[in-house]
Design goal:
By secondary structure, the chain is an alpha/beta fold. It has a single domain, classed as 3-Layer(aba) Sandwich (Rossmann fold), CATH 3.40.50. It contains seven helices and ten strands. Strands 1-10-9-6-2-3-5 form a seven-stranded parallel beta sheet, with helices on one face. It has a three-stranded antiparallel beta sheet with strand order 4-8-7, with helices on one face. α2 links the parallel β2 and β3. The radius of gyration is 17 Å and the shape is globular. The two termini are 13 Å apart.
């Protein structure tokens, strides 16, 4: 595992964006696994800046996102499709047909999970997966005690996760109770994984995830078994390792 220490959130975002842009420069047809939430916004902003300068080209890139809320339409302001368009896709030259997220309106959960796994396989797998890290060690929406062998599936969100995400909604009651997410098995099949973390509040879970026991109690701990993981964090988040 490689570890890069950044001074702050902006520096962390720049370092992670540099890794992603290098991936695209080396392989213009890269398949990127992308994440949502607060952590990657700075990464996307940096990539947009470099795109506008002509330093990186997304025209041949394919993106496959980690997850999507069940029950939300793509144009719903709270959906992850909307998030990706707002913070990234609409600012770069990526083809919308090359951007994939689960369909939150699909009635058959089994069908949607199978469809999404087929999308990943048909695109040759994920070259680089970007991950944030939850305070309880979750990656994607894989909560503590999630099965390591699970591929894309529908998960019932924990109260803690819904509380953490309520800042994006008007009230806690508006936060969906289920989401489609890549499973840990699917995440682990990515050829390279980049994890971004910032803030002192993440220090303890960083230590447990990357230097503690490998256990379903801490889903991110399974990343210790991957042969190509890069951790990019600011000094506060990495202060205990």
């Amino acid at each position: 595992m490689k570890i890069y220490t950044a001074t702050d959130f902006k520096d962390m975002s720049r370092k992670a964006a540099n890794i992603i842009s290098a991936q695209i420069i080396l392989n213009e047809k890269s398949v990127l696994g992308l994440a949502t939430g607060s952590s990657p916004i700075g990464v996307y902003q940096q990539l947009i800046e470099w795109y506008k300068k002509g330093d990186v080209d997304f025209s041949s890139v394919t993106t496959i996102n980690l997850d999507e809320y069940v029950g939300l339409a793509p144009d719903d302001p709270h959906s992850y499709r909307y998030f990706m368009k707002k913070y990234f896709f609409s600012h770069i030259n990526i083809h919308e047909s090359n951007t994939y997220l689960p369909n939150g309106l699909q009635k058959s959960q089994e069908f949607e999970c199978m469809r999404y796994e087929c999308i990943i396989r048909n695109n040759g797998g994920i070259d680089m997966q970007l991950l944030g890290l939850g305070h309880n060690g979750h990656i994607g929406f894989n909560e503590p005690n999630a099965a390591f062998e699970a591929d894309t599936h529908c998960v019932t969100l924990s109260q803690d996760t819904r509380e953490a995400n309520k800042r994006f909604f008007d009230t806690i009651d508006d936060v969906p109770r289920q989401a489609y997410t890549m499973g840990i098995k699917t995440i682990m099949q990515a050829r390279r994984i980049v994890v971004i973390v910032s803030g002192e509040s993440k220090a303890e879970i960083v230590k447990r995830s990357f230097f503690g026991s490998i256990t379903p109690d801490v889903p991110a701990s399974v990343l210790q078994l991957h042969n190509n993981v890069t951790l990019v964090g600011d000094k506060a988040a990495l202060s205990l390792i």
